[in-house]
Structure formats: C-alpha cells, structure tokens
Design brief:
Length: 359
C-alpha cells in the first residue's frame, strides 16, 4: 500500500493506493468518517462490477447506505443532471454531517464532487476512482465541475475531498479504449514534469506490460499532481501546467458534443497539435513533437483531428476556455519532454493553428 499526503493545511487529505482496497472499503472509510450514513454516486457500468460489493462492505462496517446509479459517459456530467442528483440525496435524507462517496471515473468524480460542494452548502466526500484517468488525475486536486453545452467544466468549484481511495485492481475491468484514454493523462504528466516516467510508459507497449507497472505509474502521476496542487491550489500559476493539451482537447470534445472523442483522446490530439506548432516556431526542442506523436500512437491514441474538423468552431469553443483571461490566453507548451511551461498568447494564435492546413 502507498499513501501520499496532499498538504493543504486544514484541507489536507491522503491518497491511498492499495490493490484490493474495495474489499476492505468499510474499514478504510472508517479511518476518515465516524458518522452513520453514506450516499454513493456511481454509474451503470461501474455499479455492475463494484456497486453491490462496495455497499456490502460499508454495511458490514455498520454504515447506512444509499446510492444513485447514473448513465455512463460525458453527457451525464451536465448541469441539467444535477437536480436529479440533489433530489436523490434529499430522498435519502442526506445531511451536512453525512458522507458522499463518488465511485467511478472522472465523470462521476466531477459530478458527484460538485454535488457535494453545493448540496446543503457542502457535504464531505471521498473519491473512489475506478478508471485510470480518475486514479492518476481527476480524483486529486479538488477541481469539481459540470459541463454546459457551450463548453466543458464551465460551472465548477474547488472542493477538496476527505480522502482519495484508489484500488488499481478495478482497472482490470476497464474497456481498452478507456484504459488508453487514461494513459493519455499519464503521458501528459510525464511531458510536463518527468522525463523518466515518459520513457517508462514509452517502453511498455502492451496493456499487460503496462499493468505490470501500473501501481508505479499511478503513484508517480499522483505525486506530480499533488505537488503541483500544493504549490497552486486554485490554479493561479503553476497548476496551469496540468492543462497541457487541454485547450484544444476541451474544444474538440465540446464541438462534437462529447460523443466522438474520449477526454484522453482529445487531450492527445491537443498535445500533438500544440507541440508540432511550438516546435515549428522554435519554442520547443527539435524532435519533441515526433517523439510525443510516436508514443501516443503506440498506445492507441489519436494524434490529429478528423478530416471534418471545423477550425472556426474549435476557435469559438476555445474563446470560452476557463484560462481565457480576456485579451490573453494562457496555454502550456513544452521546452522538451519533461519540461512544460506556461505561455501567454491571444486567441488569434489558434486561428492560424486550427484553420486550413493547421487542422
């Protein structure tokens, strides 16, 4: 078992990484919560594998449990889904001193976390991430949000969890596409902070090889994420580095109504496009774009937008990006693999990049 402490003063919390953790969930939760009622937010796919076992473990530890099972997919992480979430919590009789568990991937974590931050002006919650993307990235750092039709994560908050409890064994039931979706975020973390992690992932080509080192990969990504969050909890500086590839990626997700690309696939495309452009303009070391592209492609991740991509629509979506500061827009570029930096530009930067031959 690995335990990392995200040090944020009164908002500090542990990240526990342990194989088989779900089988001892009641015991683990009791380390952090001594109340009586727990409400689980999950989705249909995760519930089929782990819902009953999670509730049984909690009930065996003496907890009263309720749950809400949502449809899977990014479309669920929508503002208009929230009323049904709040109603289910009210029906359960959830109070401010009770606990919410988010059992699932990034969608469940973000939606359930935002509900926790806003229901009764705040209820404590614990993240139990079951996807690779959630285990290495979205469950850590307290960013919770829902989407609007005009863009991703436009309604959100910073609300740190009570704990993050990660069981790498849940990755065995993850469909291949969504395993590699999460690996894109691991590659992102390596690109901005850790050349050795990049080389490790690059050398593990098959899924079985990746699984043999998955605890190491999850732990190192969580270390990177927690260190960045500790330095910049509210994303006013260094934390922007975690958005490498996301400016274009979020725009691509929104333009296709969250139905064509997974989050990781869209981020992979964003990383490739922005790095090819920054290398062509001498801001990134020669050969970086090719190395990144080859690594992503080797792990079943796309490196370019589809031929029908609408550059104008993508630029319009970028104009609603959270990092758009009015006349300027902060984006993340690479000096080389393992060294990211924040670059201040303007929206016209993307008019060139995402129009005509730029797409």
């Amino acid at each position: 078992m690995t335990e990392l402490l995200t040090q944020l003063g009164k908002r500090s919390y542990p990240i526990v990484i342990r194989r088989g953790l779900l089988s001892a969930l009641g015991e683990m939760v009791s380390r952090f919560y001594q109340g009586s009622k727990i409400f689980i937010v999950t989705d249909k796919n995760v519930n089929a594998y782990y819902g009953a076992a999670a509730e049984k473990a909690l009930q065996s530890a003496g907890y009263i449990t309720g749950s809400l099972v949502l449809p899977p997919g990014e479309q669920t992480k929508a503002f208009d889904v929230l009323p049904a979430v709040y109603e289910a919590m009210l029906d359960f009789g959830l109070r401010r001193r009770d606990l919410i568990l988010t059992l699932g991937g990034g969608v469940v974590g973000d939606l359930g976390g935002f509900a926790a931050a806003t229901y009764l002006r705040g209820v404590p919650y614990i993240q139990i991430p079951t996807s690779l993307l959630a285990q290495i990235d979205s469950s850590v750092g307290g960013k919770v949000a829902v989407n609007l039709k005009r863009g991703k994560n436009l309604i959100g908050n910073f609300c740190q969890p009570m704990a993050v409890l990660t069981d790498p064994d849940t990755l065995a039931t993850l469909p291949g596409r969504f395993f590699y979706d999460g690996l894109a975020e691991a590659i992102k973390a390596a690109c901005i902070k850790d050349r050795a992690l990049f080389d490790l992932i690059r050398g593990l080509v098959s899924r079985s090889e990746l699984h043999s080192r998955i605890e190491e990969i999850v732990t190192r990504c969580c270390q990177i994420k927690k260190e960045v969050v500790e330095a910049d909890e509210l994303e006013n500086g260094e934390r922007i580095l975690l958005n490498f590839g996301h400016t274009i990626g979020h725009a691509a997700e929104a333009c296709y109504h969250y139905s064509r690309y997974t989050h990781g696939e869209a981020v992979a495309i964003g990383m490739c496009l922005i790095t090819a452009h920054s290398e062509a303009t001498d801001m990134t070391a020669p050969g970086t774009a090719a190395e990144l592209r080859e690594t992503l492609a080797a792990h079943n991740l796309p490196c370019a937008l589809d031929a029908d991509a609408d550059g104008a629509a993508l630029v319009s979506a970028i104009s609603h990006d959270k990092k758009n500061m009015g006349s300027s827009l902060n984006i993340v570029l690479l000096k080389e693999i393992g060294q990211g930096f924040v670059y201040e530009t303007t929206l016209p930067y993307f008019h060139f990049l995402l129009s005509g031959d730029g797409v």
